[in-house]
C-alpha cells in the first residue's frame, strides 16, 4: 500500500511495489560478439563447483549410470532461467532483485532473505577447496586434516578479500578468475579422459547412458536409493548448472558487461584503485521503434548464444568428471565403499589423475579441485555485495545518500568475516549441502514468478511494450522447468519428512 506524506506519495517498503518509472534513453548498438563474450563463461566457471566436482561423482560412484540419463535434461532447464534473468536486466539496466521488488515488495524481500541465508554458509566452498590444498601441502605440519583444511580456508578467504578490495573493477576480478577456472578445470579433465585406458574400457557403457531416460526410465530415484542421500539429490539438481541464487547473479555479470540498456549503468569499482561510476537507483528503458526492435533482436540473439556457451561448457565438464568417476572411482566404491566425505572431500577424486601420473597427477588434481570450488566463493562474495546493494537501492532516499559501491564493499567485508567464522563450525560438505537445498527452493519460486514478471509485468511497465516480451517457445520451456523443479523439490520433502 502507499500512504500520503506531506502531500507526496510515499511507497510502502513491505506491502507495495517498487514503482519508480524508468529513465528513457536510446538502446545502444550491439558492439559485436567478440566484445561481449564473458558472462556465459563466468556462469560456467561458477557452475563448475560442488555439483560437478563432488556430488555428481558421488552419485555416479554410488548408483552407477542411473542419474546420467537425467544429466542433459537437468542441465538444459537452467538455460531458460538464465535467459529470463538476462532479459530483464538487458531491457531495464536494473539488477534482477529490483525486478523482484517491482513484482511486489514482499516477494522482493523474501527472495533477499533466502539469498542471505544461502550466503551465510558460502564459506563451505572455500573449505571444500581447502581440503585439496591441505592434502597437497600437508601444512601446517603436525596438524590433522581438519586443522590443515581450516588453516588454508582462512588464508584463502583473506587473500580473496584483498584481491576484491584492490581490483579496479569488481566484475573484472570475477571474470578473470572464472574464465581461468573454467578453462583449467575443463582442460584438465579433458586431458585425463583422453589419456586414460580405464575410460576407454567403459565408454561403451557410459555414453549410451547419457541418452535421456535410457538408464532410468522416467524414475527420478533408483530402487536402491538411500534416503540419507536426499540432500545430495536435491543439491545435484540445483547445481547441474549454477542453481538458485547463483543463477540470479548472471543478471549482474550481464549488467557490468554493458549489455543493451545496462550500458547506461555504471560498474562497481574499487574504493582504492578504481574511479567511481554512477549507479542510479532506477533503471533505464528504450521506446518502441522499428530500429530499436531490430537492435533488440541482435542483443537477444547474443544472449541466446552467450547463455548456450555457458550451459554447454558446464554440461561437458560434468560429462568429463562423471566419466572419470565411472571408470576409476566406481570400481573402488564397489570394492571398498569409499566416497567423498568430511575434511577429505576432494581427496577422493585425486585418482582421476593419480591413476595416470601418480603423486604428480594427484597434486595437479588438488590444484584443479581448489580452482573448481574457491572460484565459486569468489563469485558468491561478489554476489552478496550486489544483492544487498541492489535491494537497499530500492529504498527511497538510499540511492541519493549512499554510493552503491560503498554498500558493496562493506558487505564483501562483512561476509568475509562470516566466512572465516563458518568454516570453523562445520565440515565443508554439510555447509555446501545447506546452500544446495535452499537454492533449490529459491529456484522453484522465481521460476514460477517469471511468468508474471517477464510475460506480463515487464511489457506493461516498459516503454517498448511487447518488444521485450519473451516468445511462446520460451514460455513452453520455462513451464517445463518450473514443473520439473517443483516436482523434484516436492519429492525431496516427501522422502525427507
TrEMBL record:
Q: Which residues form a coiled coil?
A: none
Bilayer-crossing regions: 30-49, 55-77, 106-126, 151-171, 178-200, 230-253, 308-329, 363-381, 407-425, 431-451, 472-493
Keyword presence, RNA-binding: no
**Does the record bear NAD in its keywords?**
no
Q: Which UniProt keywords apply?
A: Membrane, Transmembrane, Transmembrane helix
Q: What is this protein called?
A: Uncharacterized protein
What is the species of this protein? Korarchaeum cryptofilum (strain OPF8)
Cite the source lineage.
Archaea, Thermoproteota, Candidatus Korarchaeia, Candidatus Korarchaeales, Candidatus Korarchaeaceae
Amino acid at each position: 500500500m502507499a500512504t500520503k506524506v506531506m502531500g507526496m506519495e510515499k511507497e510502502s517498503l513491505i506491502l507495495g511495489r517498487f514503482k519508480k518509472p524508468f529513465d528513457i534513453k536510446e538502446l545502444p548498438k550491439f558492439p559485436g560478439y567478440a566484445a561481449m563474450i564473458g558472462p556465459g563463461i563466468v556462469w560456467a566457471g561458477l557452475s563448475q563447483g560442488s555439483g560437478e566436482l563432488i556430488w555428481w561423482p558421488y552419485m555416479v560412484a554410488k548408483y552407477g549410470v542411473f542419474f546420467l540419463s537425467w544429466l542433459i535434461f537437468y542441465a538444459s532447464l537452467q538455460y531458460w532461467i538464465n535467459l529470463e534473468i538476462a532479459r530483464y536486466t538487458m531491457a531495464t539496466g536494473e539488477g534482477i532483485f529490483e525486478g523482484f521488488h517491482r513484482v511486489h515488495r514482499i516477494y522482493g524481500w523474501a527472495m533477499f532473505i533466502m539469498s542471505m541465508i544461502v550466503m551465510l554458509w558460502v564459506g563451505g566452498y572455500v573449505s571444500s577447496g581447502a581440503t585439496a590444498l591441505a592434502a597437497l601441502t600437508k601444512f601446517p605440519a603436525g596438524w590433522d586434516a581438519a586443522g590443515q583444511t581450516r588453516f588454508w580456508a582462512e588464508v584463502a578467504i583473506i587473500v580473496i578479500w584483498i584481491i576484491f578490495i584492490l581490483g579496479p573493477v569488481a566484475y573484472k576480478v570475477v571474470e578473470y578468475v572464472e574464465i581461468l577456472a573454467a578453462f583449467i578445470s575443463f582442460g584438465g579433465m579433458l586431458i585425463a579422459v583422453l589419456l586414460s585406458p580405464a575410460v576407454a574400457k567403459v565408454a561403451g557403457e557410459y555414453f549410451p547412458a547419457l541418452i535421456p531416460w535410457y538408464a532410468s526410465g522416467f524414475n527420478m530415484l533408483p530402487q536402491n536409493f538411500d534416503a540419507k542421500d536426499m540432500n545430495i539429490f536435491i543439491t545435484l539438481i540445483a547445481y547441474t548448472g549454477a542453481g538458485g541464487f547463483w543463477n540470479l547473479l548472471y543478471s549482474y555479470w550481464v549488467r557490468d558487461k554493458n549489455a543493451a540498456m545496462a550500458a547506461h549503468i555504471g560498474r562497481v569499482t574499487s574504493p582504492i584503485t578504481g574511479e567511481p561510476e554512477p549507479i542510479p537507483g532506477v533503471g533505464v528503458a528504450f521506446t518502441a521503434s522499428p530500429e530499436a526492435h531490430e537492435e533488440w533482436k541482435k542483443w537477444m540473439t547474443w544472449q541466446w548464444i552467450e547463455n548456450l556457451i555457458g550451459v554447454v561448457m558446464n554440461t561437458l565438464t560434468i560429462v568429463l568428471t562423471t566419466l572419470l568417476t565411472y571408470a576409476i572411482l566406481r570400481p573402488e566404491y564397489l570394492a571398498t565403499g569409499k566416497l567423498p566425505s568430511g575434511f577429505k572431500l576432494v581427496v577422493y577424486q585425486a585418482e582421476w589423475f593419480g591413476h595416470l601420473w601418480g603423486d604428480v597427477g594427484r597434486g595437479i588434481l588438488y590444484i584443479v579441485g581448489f580452482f573448481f570450488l574457491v572460484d565459486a566463493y569468489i563469485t558468491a562474495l561478489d554476489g552478496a555485495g550486489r544483492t544487498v546493494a541492489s535491494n537497499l537501492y530500492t529504498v527511497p532516499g538510499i540511492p541519493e545518500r549512499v554510493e552503491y559501491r560503498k554498500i558493496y564493499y562493506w558487505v564483501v567485508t562483512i561476509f568475509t568475516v562470516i566466512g572465516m567464522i563458518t568454516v570453523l563450525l562445520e565440515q565443508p560438505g554439510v555447509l555446501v549441502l545447506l546452500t544446495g537445498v535452499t537454492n533449490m527452493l529459491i529456484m522453484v519460486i522465481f521460476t514460477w514468478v517469471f511468468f508474471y514478471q517477464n510475460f506480463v509485468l515487464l511489457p506493461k511497465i516498459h516503454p517498448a511494450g511487447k518488444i521485450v516480451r519473451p516468445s511462446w517457445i520460451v514460455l513452453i520451456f520455462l513451464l517445463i522447468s518450473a514443473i520439473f523443479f517443483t516436482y523434484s523439490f516436492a519429492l525431496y520433502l516427501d522422502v525427507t519428512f
